[in-house]
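Inputs:
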Amino acid sequence: MKLYDIAHSRAGDKGDILNLSLIPYNEEDYEMLCQKVTAESVKEHMRDIIQGRVIRYELANIKALNFVCYKSLLGGVTTSLAMDTHGKSLSSALLEMEI
Amino acid sequence: MVRTKPEKTLRIGSGAGFSGDRLEPAEVLVQHANLDYLVLECLAERTIALAQQRKSHNGNVGYDPLLERRMRRLLPLLIKHNVRLITNMGAANPIAGAEKILCIAKELNLSCKVAAVTGDECLDQIDLNAEIWETNKTLASYEPIISANAYLGIDALLPALETDANIIITGRVADPSLFLAPQVHHFNWSRDDYTKLGQGIVNGHLLECAGQISGGYFADPDKKDVPDLAHLGFPYAVIDPDGRALITKVEGTGGLVDLRTVKEQLIYEVHNPAEYFTPDAIADFSSVQVHKVGKNQVEVSGGSGTTRPDLLKVSVGYHAGFIGEGEISYAGTNAAERAKLSGKILKERLSGSVSDLRIDLIGISSVHRTQFERIDPYEVRVRAAGHSDSEELAMLIGEEVEALYTNGPAGGGGARKKVSESIGVVSTFIPRDKVQTQVYLKGV
């Protein structure tokens, strides 16, 4: 299945760094997401987008994950030539991942 | 009509999450949420550099371009309902913004006091040899620099709140601080009670993007449905003396406040959730608890924090030349191949003039820069974009796209071209004690 089926996400930007939250609709799926959606698997899935490292933070308090992706916004919003300079649509790219 | 304010709890509404945000939701909040404070956050990274440019041409402007429209509509309501306003609509010129608000008050025959907070401008105090945060280059390599503004914290806002001003207008202030300052002022929190400050920052962070916590930027039909999104209501918080907050919206407005919207916003633009840096404290979001307590009511508590950083972040705007863009569409059978041929031709024709030409295929890979599953769309739009220090060379990009009509593949249509001045923003840091803030108070 796709992450889209069981979780939602919002993208944020700071400079050339993208952050993607991953929040299961059902809190019981959190442990499974922790196991299956690692920093490495996200980097592999989004290899055409993320040029730097990925750090995963676990927010067990609200049953959510946060992926911080370096060098992912073509230099950052202010001078980027990208169509989506903020990378706001990239939450949907994460949710395309098959698990 | 003057209401009696509740003694214990504090009610803060969020009436704008960016400079171009919708006007009506703030009016609804002031009329129906029984607020103590309304906050309008209107200053994005680049906005202040653009405003600085306007100010350099005319010293009486440089505040938010929508200030006049917003204030004409809001001012009578704010005075009538006795709601104080805190806003960063001062942008590059808070004093001129304050004077404009006073002019509007006079015209509308309203009596009000405005406090302008200054001191975020620090172009003369920054070290041009310092490395910037984003890369290891020095600031000097980004000349010509337009503006440098420190992210002020509650230190700058509290003296203004201690006056009897109805309106507090600032330039660059860290977004959560716009919300933390009234909490600290109202509850008289100790400045080293980092647990309460941390929770206050959580409340500010949740509110600062306005509709993004009340159902905006959330809907996905049949998956995440949001009722009556067309009439999206903006959020307000009812905050207890210990910082615990109830996040909600005005009954009857569109939108949705639930655990999903609150969680998405809590992590929005956050890196390490245990270390969320602000000028007032380093907040810890990793202990935050969220509970649904009613329809469109989520209670948030448990935020914490540690001591504030010694350095303030500074946003530096610089001239980055021009960006030229052009677009043209292809449709029907083999549209994608004709679009790709166009991209190839543009690269060849512009190779001598534009060094960083970017070709996007809108409908295929323009926003994700990749395609996870190959889909042949019925129509595709080619977009070319590139930088140049010369406006003329930047214009050439759109001109070459337009020329694809008679010099490119079959069936191109709807060509558009555009050139814009590019303003870049990079960040550096400044010791806190180098920044001196002041309050300018005036009434009519």
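Chain B has two domains: 10-122+149-314+429-443, 316-427. Flag for discussion at group meeting.
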